[in-house]
Amino acid sequence: MDIRTLSPDLSVVAQIGRADLAAIAAAGYRSVICNRPDGEAPDQPGYAEIEQAASQAGLQARYLPAESGKVSDEQGRAFGLLMAELPKPVLAYCRTGMRSTTMWALAQAASLPLPQIIERSAKAGFDLKGVVRRIVNGGKTPVEVADATHEIVIIGGGAAGIAVAASLLQRSPGLDVAIIDPADIHYYQPGWTLVGAGVFEPGQTARTMASVLPRGVTWIKSAVAAFEPERHAVILDGCRVVKYSQLVVCPGLKLDWNGIEGLADTLGRHGVTSNYRYDLAPYTWHLVQQLKRGKAIFSQPPMPIKCAGAPQKAMYLSADHWRRSGVLDAIDIEFCNAGAVLFGVADYVPALMAYVKEYGIALNFGETLVSVDGPGKTAVFSKNLADGTQARVTRGFDMLHAVPPQKAPDFIRVSPLADAAGWVDIDPGTMRHKTFPNVFALGDVGNTPNAKTAAAARKQAPVVAHNVLATRGALQGEVKYDGYGSCPLTVERGKIVLAEFTYGGKVAPSFPKWLIDGTRPSTLAWWLKERILPPLYWEGMLKGREWLAQPEQVG
Fold it and tell me: Has this prediction a pTM greater than 0.85?
């Protein structure tokens, strides 16, 4: 028997026979539910036979049959009642296990988030995309009516979403564009590094969503629950349906704070901070100012992450402050990086290593933060050993700058748009989905192998805007994204190593070497990040002004 687990209380299996009941009881199950009508196949034992054998094995049995492909809302509710009534764990069966899984999903719809239902079902080998709307609607069949229809629907009102909306409207004023995002505030996230160093105030990095949306865009203030790309539909929380002609997906990524044991419980206290959160970046600066001696640990999780240089940017700026304050020699700094190198593009590593040596930073590669004890001031890391095994390393700290593991949002990972790793599956050049030709993606959520930075989104937005309009017949040819990304590595207050590169780690400077040599620390590059990039973001990128970002047509 190939038994598949859906929850601690329920597993499902394909058709069973009388002889299987003793083994089922021996495996610890206490109840059996039959979801297959008698007489579907000539080799199928009747329920009465199963019930008798179950009784002999000390199991309770119930009969809740459903026709293949026709599980009703009422059957879902009845399954939930049976689960509440029967001794557990329960084993449910039908011909393949699909009907049993569907009933469980409908019964759980009101209490379990959709992504968990879809993920558990998928792990057990069952695709429930055909009942997604019913799950979103609390286990009930919704009325088949679109609440809204727009020519272009954009998922996400972050940097990528607003930039692509603005670029679309620059090319085609009057285009019917809607952005779906539940947030009230839009953040300039690259500024949080400087908030954590006392250079920016937090308020400089935040504006209301309403104030940054391009004129003429319809804002649908809601969260997305699911996608139905075959029907050109997006399902919102509450089972509202939005239809589209073209879809652009850019909701960013998910910071998994709970992915490190104990981290969420101690953030903002006990010396534990992170510049990856708006409300915590000021605490980073507070800790840096207060620390006069002791140990400071800076962690970096496995890739991919948002702005791969950000963990060490916080480290360099902190070390620079301690040096300027005359306490650097009394502070032990460690960088614990899950990766194997300091930075992914080798051309920039020598300049960074010079600062590592100058600040006396100990580098610990192949180490992933797995748990934090804030009150106890200890952090545990999983370390990759040379023989391929792993060991646990416990380190004490006075300050810990932690970066959580990161992944695609739940509603993306379980959708038909995702690849096996959970990211939106797009062509790395055109940014078009590999399966659904009227779907595009950009920003952090795509599976393109570029750095996940705002600079990448700035370059991607015009590409997506052009190619969306070309799909609609409004423009000719297509353009391609070259993988450009930029990471201004703040190595000290007033100096930056300006890393710029395309696919494959090819160095791609925007300025002549005599003006800014990106492989060396530059005062001009600092001025660019502090003074030029914020207004370029607010007044350029978010308003469709494609300075140094216009795409080149290739076909």
Answer: yes
Q: Cβ-count burial of 307 within 10 angstroms (0-12 exposed, 13-18 middle, 19+ buried)?
A: buried
Query: What residues does each domain of the chain span?
Result: 4-136, 149-253+408-480, 257-405
Question: Can 34 be counted among the known catalytic residues?
Answer: no
Burial class (CB within 10 angstroms; exposed 0-12, middle 13-18, buried 19+) of 85: exposed
> Can you tell me which residue has the tokens 């080798």?
346
Which residues 6+ apart lie within 8 Å of 42 measured at CB? none
Contact present, 150 and 176 (Cβ < 8 Å): yes
Q: What is the mean pLDDT of the segment spanning 209-217?
A: 96
Say how far apart CA 66 and CA 527 lie, in whole Å. Answer: 68
Each residue of 363-389: pLDDT tens digit?
A: 999 999 999 999 999 999 999 888 888
8 A C-beta contact, residue 291 and residue 399: yes
Nearest to 72 by CA among 39, 41, 35: 35
Round to the nearest angstrom and report the end-to-end CA distance of the chain.
Answer: 54
3-state SS assignment for residue 211: helix
How far apart CA 414 and CA 30 sit, in angstroms, is: 31
Q: What are phi and psi of 525, to 5 degrees?
A: -65, -35
Q: Is the pLDDT of residue 86 over 90?
A: yes
Structure tokens that stand for 96 in this block: 């393949």
Length of the chain, in residues: 555
Would you call 487 a catalytic residue per the annotation?
yes
Among all chains, which residue has been given the structure tokens 């005062």? Answer: 523
Query: How many Cα atoms occupy the beta-carbon half-sphere of 387 within 13 Å?
Result: 3
Q: Is cis: bond before 304, omega within 30 of 0?
A: yes
Structure tokens at 524: 């001009």
CATH topology of domain 4-136: Protein-Tyrosine Phosphatase; Chain A (3.90.190)
Is the CATH number 3.50.50.60 carried by domain 149-253+408-480? yes
Mean pLDDT score of the chain, rounded to an integer?
94
Catalytic residue among 94, 250, 307, 336, which?
307
pLDDT at 554 over 80: no
CATH 3.50.50.60 fits 257-405, yes or no: yes
Phi-psi region of 291 (alpha: psi -120 to 50; beta: other; left: phi over 0): beta
Identify which of 408, 510, 440, 465 has the alpha carbon closest to the alpha carbon of residue 163.
465
CA distance 482 to 267: 38
Tell me the two tokens of residue 264: 């969420």
Which is the catalytic residue, given 34, 239, 250, 487?
487
